[in-house]
Amino acid sequence: MKSAGFLMAGGYGFQSLQPMLSPAIAYRGQPIALVAADALEAAIEAAALVEATYAAEPFSVTLDALGVETINQADTPLKNFIPEVIAGDADKSFAEAPIKIDARFTSPPQHQNPIELIATVADWKDGKLTIHEGTQNAEAIRHGLMAALGLTADQVQVISPYAGGGFGQKNSLQMQTVLAAVAARRLQRPLKLVVSRAQIFHDASFRAASRQRVRLGADRSGQMLAAIHDVDAQTSRHDFMPAEFAAVSSRLYGIENFRGHERLVRTDVQTPGYMRAPFEHGACFAMESCVDELAYAVGKDPVALRLANDTKIDPITKLPLSSRHLSACLERGAERFGWSKRTMAPQSMRAGDGTLIGWGVATGAYPGLIVPTVARLKVTDDGSVRLSIGRARDGSGYSHRACRRGGAQACRSTGGRGGAGRRHADCAAARDCRLLGYSLSRSHGQRRRRSDAPGTRPARARTIVQSNTGSNSQIRRTPVAGSRGPQEGTRAAGRDL
User: Fold this and answer.
1) Which of 287, 315, 355, 362 has the fewest CB atoms within 10 Å, i.e. is most exposed?
2) For residues 247 and 261, what is the distance between their CA atoms, to the nearest angstrom?
3) Per residue in 228-254, pLDDT tens?
4) Contact 330, 303 (CB under 8 A)
């Protein structure tokens, strides 16, 4: 087993670090052991009985913590596909602008925690692996497993009819998928591995903490002349999660002089990721807050100010835009909302009962990303259509649109092999606060219940761990309480899993 690599560095995973490959601990909550059992209760108990010892080392988890490493993004490999955003001479234009806005914004780390948890069912048959997992990127899981386990394309199939809750979190190979596949292969049983709600905060991507400074210069009419956007964004020690704030803020309006400067702050956390427009959200909030400040500085209606600064060309590349509907959106929204009734003075609008009312406006933007893909279309004699695409349904309705545009009367869209999956394991998501480990459970036929009654076979558990004697962490296997006879167990170095 090896790492499948980081998604933004040519790999397939939400981070390059694959747990249980090394005794080193990169962040709080990193899995160090995995337990498989034939009942959920046994898995939870067994995981709680595993003990670990650690050698303490300094750690840094916040942007200002002692020991963080701050690196210019332009000095990392990210510069090859995320260049600095610079147009004109922003520093000179800002210095000469008669109206200046200078504001700072700090955003904490934010975690998406969907109702539907991250989970994997791994099933081997005749040397081929089938994965059942809700995902936003089935091909990343497939190719990631191929890379991590040395498999060929015909040995891996990912079945994901629905993504479930994702919010960007399920856009790549998760860390539990490989572990589930390895455990299922070693035990020769279908297994389900679920990341518990508490573990999602440590073992899945999140929106990184950020610190922004926006400087906006304009003339006295409100025409924007220059903008400077400085950003410090959190990343992990083992990956460079890109910070693309300036790519968004530079294109909200027709600002001819713009300079973006983004730095990555390396901290002892898992790699941040694409939670709900991680850069675009923060960038638009910061820039739009400054645009509102500018509106009041020049005494101009916030909608009128935005309309006056709209553009038909990309202010960075100077190329004409194929489409841009910001002005039409603002004008239609203002008309339907009754914006003309708004008064500029703070606290000047009240409801009939005296309640203060505030009306605001803001622009948002998100890139239109296009990647190559493969689709298979099958039309039968009876007029039915089957469309196969290597992706999962995330609620956007792409399958419905594809079928309707084709004029098909009967259409079936699938992201992989259809039909019910083979029998798999019951869900187990045990977590020990000291261990922060994982557990699996399996079922075969009738689920057995634990009981002390004579003749009743007790639940049994198997612990799959990494043996790290003499290194950063050590793991000791503890018998499950109430079991009779010797426990089945295996111990292997993480590199052998």
Assistant:
1) 355
2) 10
3) 999 999 999 999 999 999 999 999 999
4) yes
